[in-house]
Amino acid sequence: MFKKLAVLLVLLVLVGVGCQSAEPQDEKVVVGMMTIVSHPSLDAIQQGVKDKLAEAGYVEGENLEIIEGNAEGDMATLNTIAQQFVDEGVDVIVATTTPALQAAYNATKDAENPPIIFNGVSNPYAAGIANAPDDHPAWVLGNQLLDPVADSMALIKEIKPDAQTIGLIYNPAEANSVYLAELAQDEADKMGLTLEVATVSNSNELQTAAEALAARNIDAFLAISDNTVTSGFEAIVQVANDNGLLLVGTSASMPPRGAAAAFGIDPYQEGLDSGDLLVSFLKGDLDLASAEIQIQDAVLLTVNPAAATEQGAAIPQELVDKADSIIEE
Questions:
Q1: Residues 51 and 135 in one domain
Q2: What's the pTM?
Q3: Which residues 6+ apart lie within 8 Å of 83 measured at CB?
Q4: First CA to last CA across the chain, in angstroms?
């Protein structure tokens, strides 16, 4: 009698264990994806995340629900999106861009939940989120997407050796952009170049800012991964073309939109890599608290010879030969 009861208890335990291991696979995961604005670079990042989820077996409508929030450049709207994600009880927030990360952090810091995976963030330390790669909020993790500013400025000199004055536009409301502008100034000082700066508060001001820089007799534009600049990038391209000014960017997404060249991060790879973090977390294989923030190193040289011609320049053949991607127009 006692043996039969013991066997029955063992079977019940085993069945219970089996149900517990199967239950998470049957539950739908809810992911809140938020960004300050939509433009090709950020779209590529978010697509990379979605592709990684699909590759890992997460299917929208079955075991995955993605709630997307785009603030269209408005910080107040971004804060509202973050709070809505918290109120709706999403399982994890994917914050794309520094403003999105800051909004998500502020909305979750009291409860330290839901967890946040961030991407498209130039400097989480300057943004006030983390102190070091291994010193960050226990519920927050991502990759640092740092523009290769020094290499990009060197690229300007390779294409246009006599360039001495570089024009830069950025939005000072974006912490990442302030940091990148400071890097550009430091590099200009090292290279003996003059950096002329214009600031904007929204993309509607880009053409006027670009024209103001052109009037200061700059020799070339450097476009950093400022979200305001990137969302209205074609306005800067038009001014560069009209005035015969070389335009070099720090993102692989810029030459297809009219920059002559870019030595910059591959945004889609950034999405794939942060998608890996997300999938590992969802599967229980990643402890956000103990993992370190990594620097994204998927840097590509992309050239657009036709755009360079429009801007009165020519891409040296050695750069064309070693380019990771050539935009044909």
A1: yes
A2: 0.81
A3: 107
A4: 84
Query: Could you tell me which residues come within 8 angstroms of residue 182 by beta carbon, excluding any fewer than 6 positions away?
Result: none
CATH of the domain at 95: 3.40.50.2300
Cα-flanking dihedrals φ and ψ of residue 255, to 5°? Answer: -60, -40
The pLDDT, as a whole number, for residue 3 is 38
Residue 243 sits in the same domain as residue 202: yes
Low-confidence ranges of the chain (pLDDT < 70): 1-26, 329
In a domain, 4, yes or no: no
Q: Looking at residue 26, what is its pLDDT?
A: 58
Question: Which residue from 140, 69, 73, 81 is spatially nearest to 105, judged by alpha carbons?
Answer: 140
- Give me 98's structure tokens: 């520094």
User: Looking at the domain assignment, is residue 12 inside a domain?
Assistant: no
Q: Are strands 29-35 and 92-96 parallel, antiparallel or unpaired?
A: parallel
Positive or negative, the CA dihedral 286, 289, 293, 294 is negative
Q: Does 41 lie in the same domain as 141?
A: yes
Residues forming beta bridges with residue 11, ordered by sequence position:
none
Sequence-distant (≥ 6) Cβ neighbours of residue 48 within 8 angstroms: 267, 268, 269, 270, 271, 272, 273, 274, 275
